[in-house]
Amino acid sequence: MEQAPNLHPFVVVDRHEGEVVHALLKENMMLNSDLSPQQIVNGKVAFPLIEAIGHDAVEACLQSIDLTPMFCTLEAKTQLLVNPHRRLARAVASWVEDHGEGLHADLIASIPSRWERLGGLILLPGDLNEQSSWREVMNHPQRHDMWLKIVDALKGDALGIQAPIANDTFRSSQVTMLHGSSEVSFVDHGITYTFDAAKVMFSSGNVTERRRIGAINMEGETVIDAYAGVGYYTLPMLIHSQAAHVHACEINPASIEGLRAAAAANKVSECLTVHEGDNQVSLTRLVGMADRCHLGLLPSSEPVWELAIRALKSQGGWLHVHMNVEEEHIPSWMEATRSRFQQLADQYGLGFEVHNRHLERVKWFAPFVRHVVLDLECRRV
């Protein structure tokens, strides 16, 4: 007689043995993580099994701890998997069970613990390209089934793998798409961003700095964003900081397309002027126009420092200088940077006194190297 669809096989052990049994079943891909374990009378606990796993295999597994289990069928209760890492592990294990003979150990051990989400696009870390087991998956005839399982597990609709930013003029993204479209549109902190993630960079890791800049009162100000990209800082300054107008300098045509689309989506196009091309050219047309200049290029924006301070209005203004700096050298870098801008102000007779007002440690960029932002105030004496 066919088994009722709500009945599933369970293995029953003493409760005090539950933790180690659960770990063994999970490690050997015998545990059905979709279903909840159940408490049984007389101090016993039952763990749900993958239906295709036979009793002999389970007994052999548990012999390693000198345990002879009992088996039963119980009415199963679905377990809600709210932990995305567990959902991802289950998806990979399911694919291995179906297609990955010989890949089990290495693949399960190298399941990523982090990923980036841009709207519905899931970006897996680039170091998977260096894992032999994942390279085998990428060349496997059933690889697309893996990508579908991962997308479903992480509640997305597209999947890619990250790579280092290209060392080119545009600082292009080098995402490799595995499934779906690289075109993304999503809302972050009340702002809509839209762009092609395979063509441009968007660093979700700088969210704290994006929100800090958006919390600065810029009401009535004219601001220059010297490295605007897709509006990573331009849009928070317009929408949250209430800047009157932002002049956005950008050289990458794909970024410009995304910036303009996002400005339209957020209804701030009238407050934005996009200057296409090399900012060492466009900034020469903005001398004396800005209350504030944002210099958001890593590892350094130093090539345009001279133009940035000259872009400030005659009464002065603010500079936000991004840089990658070794932690132990941050104090000396702060003073050297202030001193350099003071020299430039004196060289051009701007009459400014330059002061360090705030240093923001955004994140670790590399071992012992910080991404920092220095806020400089430049005021006429």
Could you list some keywords that capture this structure?
alpha/beta, Rossmann fold, Alpha-Beta Plaits, four-stranded antiparallel sheet, 3 domains, 381 residues, seven-stranded mixed sheet
| Alpha-carbon distance between the two ends | 93 Å
Which architecture name of the largest domain does CATH use? 3-Layer(aba) Sandwich
Rounded mean pLDDT score: 89
Helix content class:
25-40%
User: Strand fraction band?
Assistant: 25-35%
Q: Name the structural class.
A: alpha/beta
What would the principal axes of the Cα set say about the shape?
elongated
Spans of at least 5 consecutive residues with low confidence: none
Name of the CATH homologous superfamily of the largest domain: Vaccinia Virus protein VP39
Number of helices: 12
Q: How many distinct beta strands?
A: 17
Describe the biggest sheet?
A: 7 strands, mixed
